[in-house]
Amino acid sequence: MSAIETVKEACTRGLVLAPVGALLLSVALLLMGNGLLGTLLVVRAGQEDFGSDTIGAMMSVYFAGYTLGAIFLPRLIVSVGHIRTFAGFAAIASMTALLHLAQVSPWAWVPLRALTGLGYAGMILATESWLNAHAVPSTRGQLLSIFGVVSMGSWALGQALLNVAPPNGVALFLIVSLLISAAVVPITLLPSRAPADVDQEPVSFRALYAISPLASAGVFLAGLAIGGFWGLGPDFAQQIGLGIGGISAFMAAVLAGALVLQWPLGWLSDRLPRNLIIAAASLGAAAAATGLVFSTEAALPILLVAAALFGGFAIPIYSLCVAYANDSLSPGQMLGAARGLLLLNGLGTAAGPLVGGFAMRTAGPSGLFLYAAILLAVLMACALPSPRASRGRDTASTRCPHTPAFTPSLNSILQGQDTKPKGA
């Protein structure tokens, strides 16, 4: 195989990671810090006797801020660009992490969590639209899955950092701030290629639902089911008698499961109808959540296996739904669609801890996963009879990912190679 053919094959596959390598490194550092912070705040709140309802409400406002960010921040990304948006909101997230130390009370932490959620919405919008601009339909699931693997691996490492110092001290908050600040370095100082400028078209919720009803319903239901875990997973582990090491192991197991299964599910979704993969993932997640309901008094290894399966099947559902929707979008619609999907997911995740707190109060700690199992079963039922037949995804792309300066020259080389007579 010649060098030109090798490059052409790589372009056809669409997994050109070099332009987003710095972005992925920044995301890894960012989410390592955020993963540690989310668990740290829940554990610290439990030690301060905040109560499950208060902790659930505190976590919900994070997702409420996340939802507001999805509404108002796309214009900012278009205005100032992906890199500056990411860097600015990373700075805000770093500052708010330290401000939690100023006053340890729900009244102080609630607005800080909302502000943190707003900042992360801006960064996730920037990164997802950036990645989608570097994908082609034949490999979009894989590229988003690689992003998911990086994200979940970073979150899992963040859980392990909970053991570095006592949660009631200052050191862990300082580590969070340092990690988030460090996330700005790769994206601003290492070579990277932001997406080419494309005129962005607004995508209303009605239009988004018309384009992909499954993706719209899927991101909301997945957010509602998984949001309870994000907000109250550490509290669940604490209530069933796990110590600090057990809590971090439980959270890390969920994320490790996602780390293992995210890419295989994305790979399958590029070769089989995505709606069937969404249905299969929902079924697996519902079964694992049911297992967790009955594992509260089981040995720790059994609990961790069930947790890993829950994370492995449930967490990739969002990326699968995003890939499913983006198969039908033009480049100019991607940021608007990302906003809509992020907003729907944010609404679900904002309500998740509130519903999860009520379920835990009503049915005990296992109620958190009982309601998640019900919602995931509903999503599976929605995915199976999808009215839109999955259209074939070509393995050959007519152009490489949207990478300025790189794309035109490479396209001209490939086109010249294609038109050259055989034997020349």
Helix vs. strand class? mainly alpha
SSE arrangement, N to C: HHHHHHHHHHHHHHHHHH
**Shape descriptor:** globular
Rounded Rg? 21 Å
Name of the level-1 CATH class = Mainly Alpha
Percent strand: under 5%
Low-confidence parts lasting 5 or more residues at pLDDT below 50?
1-15, 386-424
Count the beta strands.
0
For the record, give the distance between the C-alpha atoms at the N and C termini, rounded to a whole number.
16 Å
Average of per-residue pLDDT values: 76
Largest sheet: none
Q: What would the CATH topology be? A: Growth Hormone, Chain: A
Tell me the name of the CATH homologous superfamily: MFS general substrate transporter like domains
Q: Helix fraction?
A: over 70%
Helix tally equals 18
- In CATH, the architecture is Up-down Bundle
Assembly context of the chains: single chain
Summarize the structure.
With 424 residues, the chain is mainly α. The chain has helices spanning 3-13, 21-47, 52-72, 74-80, 82-99, 106-133, 140-160, 171-182, 184-189, 205-211, 213-239, 244-269, 274-293, 300-314, 317-326, 334-363, 367-383, 406-419.
Structural account:
The protein has 424 residues and is mainly alpha-helical. It has one domain: Growth Hormone, Chain: A. 75% of the residues lie in helices and 0% in strands. The chain contains 18 helices and no strands. It has helices at residues 3-13, 21-47, 52-72, 74-80, 82-99, 106-133, 140-160, 171-182, 184-189, 205-211, 213-239, 244-269, 274-293, 300-314, 317-326, 334-363, 367-383, 406-419. It is globular, with a radius of gyration of 21 Å.
